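Entry 14. Two folds queued back to back today. First construct below, sequence then structure tokens.
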Amino acid sequence: EEDQEVYRYSVEILLSSLVVYGSILLLALWGQVLAETIAYYSGFLLLRHSAGGYHARSHGRCILLTLSTYLLAMTVLSAIPQNLWMGAAVLMAALSLGAIYGFGPVDHVNKPFTLQERKQYRRQSLLWVTLISLVSTAMVGLGLWEQLALAVSLGMISAALSVIAGSQEVKRNVQANGSQAR
């Protein structure tokens, strides 16, 4: 009985994840972009796990934001002309490196980092963003699975933008709580 709220929340998270990733899988199959989707989420999830980022205030908003971001990324991927792939990969790498270096990692108000966790996640996120940047840029430069490498870069930049948005949210929360304490 005392853990009922924890179980309810866990089921909500599970159902929300099933809706999001089930929808993305269906969209990827329908759009014939399954490999690109896997590449996108490889870059996104590797970085998001260690760098954190923005969290929507409700499961519905999270689903809408996740699906919208995914659809935007797949649209951008198909819209970038091949002659601009190298420049796009380098630009996304530079922006991601800057975002993670300047703002990462971002914790959540419901699960703040300890000082040790912050250091650990910072090291991990800087390592991941550097490795993903180097590998995806090199792959595009060498002509190896260029579109998949670009999709990984799009996932990385999506995670990096989430870190910026999340850091701004944390800053607003700190300011709001600081002004309430006075």
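Second construct, same run, same settings:
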Amino acid sequence: MEEKELNWGLAYFDRFVKLFGNPINQQIWDKEGYASLQILTFAPSSDLLIFASIALTLYPARLGGTYEVFLAAADRLRDAPNILGRVLTIMLEKTISLGPGAFYPIEKMFPDFSAATGKTALYFTDPAGLDELATVRINESEQGKILVGMFISAAELAFLEENGATKFEEALTRARVDPADMNRKSIF
């Protein structure tokens, strides 16, 4: 098992608390041979929950960098942390790079969710508006990044795969997509 200083977890926890307030719940995702992945739940407002990971930073070599992620959800709240935990566990186990532009298909794993929302993949990107708060440091030479996850439709996934993350990001910006709106219409 790869090991990284455990103060990454505290640094990211502190940053998430600064951004979203104190967590109201915690779920643990265990996978043999790996440290437990935590999904913390935050309630920054009455109509929004934030689900944030803790422990991905223990595996920068497997994920292609030092990252933790959060997912905002205004609907389908039971599904969101389960999907996030499962996707991140699979990405870690299969050594799938995480970073801006990374995605993972969810339609086969969560067919009821996909049918209800029209979303077939979980996409990761840089969070808009966080600027320097999206970078977490444990010392002068080591820094990690915070990513935001959002659910995307089959048409959006097809566009992403065909045109790449840069053009996809430009389309999302033009459409002013709210990452927390799981029931939004596809932009394509």
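Quick look at the second one. The chain is about 35% helix and 30% strand. The helical segments are 7-20, 60-63, 79-93, 111-117, 154-175.
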